[in-house]
């Protein structure tokens, strides 16, 4: 069984990275075209409004864990009848939440835009952009249970296909914006709304055809199931909202003290950092559903192994991808954008460092969610996210430069790391020494040996410096970060694929 699950992890990881290569190229080009078509002022406005409405978009991603958790447990037990009940319970709850969000989001967004958004153009256009984005986000929210089912079934190739199509559509439209159309901002907003809604519609059709027995619509009268899912969803929702507040709230704070030009620098740094994070988390996505199933089955040894893999692989991959931007940030940004907004470089470096700290807890949430005992974990995570937001606000209010917001985030992320470790031990009586010995120590030692090559000045051409830096880090990861057993497994997998 373990051999098969490890092969499934490896296969899904390869699929995700193939998808990642295509979508990253599309996203980088799309951002360049969008910035060229909209200009720094309108692009900064969309970054602010997108930060407000992406609360729902990011909430969707995190709320998938609720549907995934309950459906995966039912599937793991082989109870398809219960899986159908859990799906319909989740669908009913998400439809209700979507309707509530629709009724609440417009008046609050309209009030905020008219009173607090600093924008030189038409405020009415800003309101229209906000409304368009709400529509796309509502549709994507209703598709969450279908998304959760696909994750529970580990159908990552389905995610990859629709994600590639969405990115190609985005690239085509942003390219056309540079040379055509007058209302560029409105068209860009409509296109982004379609990109957000398209996956949900596709998942609905696919699941209805492939897993009809599970997604067959029915009204579930069992109030206990609603209470369980709703309670779990509320805890996840609280954590999701504060997590979004921590990330997207940065745009609102910066806009409150500076202008949309500074938001453009912040937005550019966030885009790059988001893709650095995606490269890292893609290696752990195939592991997440197996952590849930292993924990539900009571396989403690396999659960520990998967958690160590999730933490270590995520951190090392974040370091490997992020190291390129830490070594030559200005050269890469110039190569990508042509003209780099002020402060984008320093924002990017600080966000990558913050991302490295956050990645040290990758997978911990999966094992706690699998247990269902998420209260303490969500309280710790939520309070610390709020602390990060408040700290950043008061730092900028005190007159500090805009990038000090990211510095304060890093400091709070270190606190978050230890708080999450404490909640893991307190909730599950988990032996954290396993993680320190097998995941944290090799990862931190790799980092300590790598830092000198970043700080030592070099006269080499940036491209040559990137090659040398990356090769050196690869040697450190293989020699220090990975254990002998992990190196052997990777080599066996590569040899097997080459042989085929």
Give an overview in words.
This protein has 500 residues and is mostly helical. The protein folds into 2 domains: 19-221, no CATH class; 259-500, no CATH class. The protein has 19 helices and no strands. It has helices at 2-76, 80-116, 123-142, 144-152, 156-179, 184-210, 212-215, 223-257, 260-281, 288-296, 300-327, 329-337, 344-359, 364-371, 375-397, 404-428, 433-455, 462-481, 484-499. Helix 2 (80-116) runs antiparallel to helix 3 and helix 10 runs parallel beside helix 14 (364-371). The longest helix is centred in the first third of the chain and has 75 residues, at 2-76. The radius of gyration is 22 Å and the shape is globular. The two termini are 22 Å apart. The model has no long low-confidence stretch (mean pLDDT 78).
**Overall geometric form:** globular
Category by helix and strand content:
mainly alpha
Report helical residue fraction: over 70%
**Describe the biggest sheet?**
none
Indicate the low-confidence ranges by residue numbers: none
Portion in strands: under 5%
User: Using DSSP, what is the number of strands?
Assistant: 0
Keywords:
single chain, about 500 residues, mainly alpha, 2 domains, 19 helices, globular
List the topology elements.
Layout: H1 2-76, H2 80-116, H3 123-142, H4 144-152, H5 156-179, H6 184-210, H7 212-215, H8 223-257, H9 260-281, H10 288-296, H11 300-327, H12 329-337, H13 344-359, H14 364-371, H15 375-397, H16 404-428, H17 433-455, H18 462-481, H19 484-499
């Amino acid at each position: 069984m373990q051999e098969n699950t490890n092969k499934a992890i490896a296969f899904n990881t390869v699929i995700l990275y193939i998808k990642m290569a295509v979508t990253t190229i599309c996203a980088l080009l799309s951002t360049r075209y969008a910035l060229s078509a909209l200009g720094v002022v309108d692009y900064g406005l969309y970054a602010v409004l997108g930060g407000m409405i992406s609360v729902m978009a990011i909430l969707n991603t995190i709320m998938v864990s609720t549907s995934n958790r309950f459906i995966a447990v039912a599937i793991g037990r082989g109870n398809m009848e219960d899986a159908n009940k859990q799906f319909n319970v989740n669908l009913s709850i998400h439809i209700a939440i979507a309707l509530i969000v629709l009724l609440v989001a417009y008046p609050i967004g309209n009030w905020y835009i008219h009173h607090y958004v600093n924008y030189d153009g038409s405020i009415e256009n800003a309101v229209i952009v906000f409304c368009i984005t709400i529509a796309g986000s509502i549709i994507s929210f209703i598709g969450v249970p279908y998304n959760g089912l696909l994750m529970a079934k580990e159908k990552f190739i389905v995610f990859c296909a629709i994600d590639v199509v969405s990115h190609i559509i985005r690239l085509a439209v942003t390219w056309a914006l540079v040379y055509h159309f007058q209302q560029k901002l409105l068209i860009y907003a409509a296109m982004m709304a379609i990109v957000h809604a398209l996956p949900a519609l596709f998942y609905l059709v696919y699941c209805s055809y492939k897993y009809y027995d599970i997604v067959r619509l029915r009204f579930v009268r069992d109030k206990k199931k609603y209470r369980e899912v709703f309670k779990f969803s509320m805890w996840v929702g609280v954590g999701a909202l504060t997590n979004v507040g921590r990330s997207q709230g940065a745009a609102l704070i910066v806009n409150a003290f500076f202008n949309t030009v500074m938001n453009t620098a912040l937005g550019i740094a966030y885009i790059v950092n988001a893709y650095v994070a995606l490269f890292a988390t893609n290696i752990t996505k195939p592991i997440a559903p197996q952590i849930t199933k292993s924990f539900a089955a009571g396989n403690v040894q396999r659960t520990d192994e998967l958690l160590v893999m999730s933490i270590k692989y995520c951190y090392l991959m974040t370091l490997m991808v992020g190291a390129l931007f830490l070594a030559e940030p200005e050269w890469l940004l110039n190569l990508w954008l042509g003209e780099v907004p002020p402060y984008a470089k320093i924002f990017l470096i600080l966000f990558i460092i913050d991302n490295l700290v956050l990645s040290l807890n990758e997978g911990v949430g999966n094992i706690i969610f699998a247990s269902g005992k998420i209260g303490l974990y969500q309280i710790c995570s939520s309070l610390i996210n709020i602390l990060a937001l408040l700290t950043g606000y008061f730092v900028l209010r005190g007159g500090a430069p805009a990038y000090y917001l990211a510095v304060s985030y890093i400091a709070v992320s270190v606190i978050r790391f230890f708080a999450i470790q404490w909640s893991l031990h307190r909730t599950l009586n988990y032996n954290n020494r396993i993680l320190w010995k097998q995941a944290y120590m090799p990862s931190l030692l790799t980092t300590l040996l790598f830092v000198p090559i970043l700080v030592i000045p070099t006269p080499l051409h940036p491209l040559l410096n990137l090659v040398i830096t990356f090769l050196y880090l690869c040697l450190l990861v293989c020699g220090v970060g990975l254990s002998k057993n992990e190196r052997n497994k990777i080599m066996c997998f590569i040899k097997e694929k080459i042989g085929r």
